[in-house]
Amino acid sequence: MEISKELALELGVSMTDLFYLYKVLYKLPDVDIEGLESKGYLQFNAVSDSIARKLIPQKTPFDTIYDSYPHKIGTRVLKAVKHDTGDYSYCTSKFNYYVRKNPDVASKMLKGLKMELQMREKGNSQQFQQDIKTWFNQRTWEKYCDLEIEEEIEKYDAI
User: Fold this and answer.
1) What is the phi-psi region of residue 73: left when phi exceeds 0, alpha when psi lies from -120 to 50, beta otherwise?
2) Domain of residue 40, residue span
3) What is the radius of gyration, based on Cα positions, of the chain?
4) Number of independent structural domains in the chain
């Protein structure tokens, strides 16, 4: 692996920090960082972690929810896969609106989505899954976020 001094200067980081970024980005398991540090070739510091967080894109809570939502059930399309579409921008604006009202809504949305998907799979009712815009508009996650899957399965098994 070659580390470019020009790239380090362009990013405004040290050569050591750029090496660290390469390691994180490319998930290089065979690099013995501790060995390189002990021999004096590298000197890592707390700046490396903060630079990595800034330069390496992190998945937002909204992206996690959007990407977890099923794209297609059978022949029905529930959402667009790409993030440069109308579905994504519409749902982003709705998500931001809900977060302004309640900052904890993202965790409830994700929990509700996971619960709904589990229940639909267990009940074999995936074909009734709403498209993502309807899911956001009707706040469907609220119906599922406080449920526990074992309790609900036992209710359906008893019928």
Assistant:
1) beta
2) 5-55
3) 22
4) 2
Residues 13 and 5 sit within 8 Å (Cβ to Cβ)? no
Do 140 and 93 fall into the same domain?
yes
Q: What is the pTM of this model?
A: 0.58
Give pLDDT tens digits for 116-154: 999 988 888 888 999 999 999 999 999 988 877 555 555
Q: What is the helix (H) or strand (E) element at residue 77, kind and residue range? A: strand 76-77
CB 93 within 8 A of CB 132: no
Q: Are residues 48 and 83 in the same domain?
A: no
- At 78, list the tokens: 């529930």
Task: Output DSSP code: residue 1.
Answer: -
User: Does 104 score more than 70 pLDDT?
Assistant: yes
Residues 14-31 pLDDT 10s: 777 777 777 777 666 666
List CB contacts of 156: < 8 A, sequence separation 6 or more: 122, 123
Highest mean pLDDT among 44-48, 49-53, 144-148: 144-148
Instruction: Using DSSP, state whether 72 is helix, strand or coil.
Output: strand
